[in-house]
Amino acid sequence: MDVPLLPGLEESAAPLDPLNPEDQENKKMPRGRRPKATPAPKKVERQEALKNRIVGLAEELSGAGFSDLLTELVPIKPVAPEVVDQKTSARIGHVEETLAVYLQRTSIKDNLSQRPPFDHIADPIYRRLMRDFIVGAQMPEVKIAALRDLSGRIKSLDENDINYSIIDGLQRSWCYSTTVLLALHREKLVSDRCITVEAWDYFRPFIEKLGDPQVATRVLLSRTIRYEIYYNIDLEGLLHYMVTFNTAQRRMSLQVQLEIMRKPLIDEIEAAANITVFRDTHDIETTGKAQKPRDQFAASDIAVAAEAFITNNAQASQKEIAEDLLEKDSGYTATGVDVGDIADVVYMLKRVAQDLHPLMLLIYSDEPGKKFYFSGGGTFLTGFAAACGYVRNRNNMKMLEGALEKLVLLLKQPSEDPLGLDEYQELIKDIKSSRGKMMRRLVYDTFLRFFLGTTTRLEWTDAYRSLSLT
Prior knowledge:
By secondary structure, the protein is an alpha/beta fold. The protein folds into two domains: 43-245, no CATH class; 254-469, no CATH class. It is 51% helix and 7% strand. The protein is built from 22 helices and seven strands. The protein has helices spanning 21-28, 43-55, 57-63, 99-105, 124-134, 170-185, 188-191, 197-208, 213-221, 235-245, 254-261, 263-273, 283-287, 299-311, 318-327, 339-363, 368-371, 378-394, 397-411, 421-428, 435-451, 460-469, and strands at 83-84, 91-98, 142-147, 163-168, 224-231, 277-278, 297-298. Strands 1-2-5-3-4 form a five-stranded mixed beta sheet. A hairpin with a 6-residue loop joins strand 1 and strand 2.
C-alpha cells in the first residue's frame, strides 16, 4: 500500500539515484548555508577574558569545593627575623604560605603603577615557567608590600586592614593563577576564549599527570610558596623598590619608569590642567591598545615637558630625567618642584591641551602628519615647553600669558598653514646627525623668537640658519 506524500514534498521525497553523480554529490553536501566558524579571539580579548577569571579566582574556588584550603587570613608570620633596609627603613621578611592563601592575600588588580601583563600563554619564557611550576618547580620569590590604604606606612604585620601590593612579581602571580585555572577547567578555557588551542596542547600532558581536575587543583593550591614581605614603608619607598626591582629581567621602559617616578606630579597636572593622559602602566591593559592614541598626551611626555618648562632646557630627555631621579637622595616625590612651579606648569600645559591642541586638530584636520605635533611625540612639545619656560623664567608669567595668546591668534588667522609646518617639515629632512637634539633646538629657537617679538610669525628657516652657523 502506497503512503501518500504530504503536499509540497513530492520532489524532496524522491529517492536518490545511486548511479547519478549529481545525486551523490547532493547527498554529501548538507542543504542550506553552512554556519560560519567562530573566529579565534584576538589577543586583547583573550587576555581580558583570562584576567577577569583570575580576578575572581578565589571566589570561584570557594564555590567549587576548595573552601577548606581557602582558610581565613591571619597575620603574616615571617619564617626568620626581618632585616632592615637602611635606605627606606623598610622591614623585609620571608614568608611561606600555601598558594591558596597567597591567592587570597594578593591580587593582580589594583597594584600601584604596575606594568601591563605579557601574553603569558604565548611567551616561551612564561610558558616554561608555568610548565615547571605544574611539575613541581619553585618560582622565584615575589616581593609584596604591606601598606595602609595602598600608600600609608604600617609598623607591624599584626595590624588590621592591611593592603598587600605586589612590588615585583605581577607576572609570576598571573602565572600562578593561570596554572590553577588550567588544572580546574582544562580545555574548557579554549571554548571560554581565555587561551588558545595551541596553549592547551602544550600544557595538557603536564596538567593531566596531576590527576583529574579536582585532584590537580588541590595539588597546586596546597603547594607551599615563598615570598618576601616589605612593611614600614611609604609611597616613596614603594616607588623606589618598584623601579629598582622591575629593571632586572625584562627592562622597564623609560616611559614606564617616568610614569612611576613622576606619578604624583603627573596626577596633579592631569587633574588641574584637565588633560587626558595616557599611561603605559594602566591604559594599555585596560583599553587593549598597544599604543597611545595620537590625540592623547603620554604621561612620560607630560613629565618631560614639565622638566623642560621649569629648567627652560630644550634638551630635557626621558633618559636623563630618569637617571637623575634615581641618583637623587631626596627621592622621586621630593623633586624640588615647588607649588609655584607646578601652578605655572599646569597653566602652560592647560593652554596647550585646551587651546592650542584643539586648534591644531581643526586646522590640520586632513593632515595627520601635522595635527598631532603637540600630542604625538616628545620632541615638538619639549622644545615648545622649554621656550615657554624661558619666557617665564627670564621675564614673568604675565608675559608668557601674552605670548601664548599671540600664538592662539596666529592659529586663528585665515591660513591653511598658520604655523608654517610645511616649511618645518622640509627643513628637518636635512637634519642627519643628532636629529632629536637639533629638532628640539629648532622648535625652541623658533617659538622663542616669536614669543619675544623678534618675528611676527614662526620663521623656521631663519632659526635653522642660525643653528647651522653655531
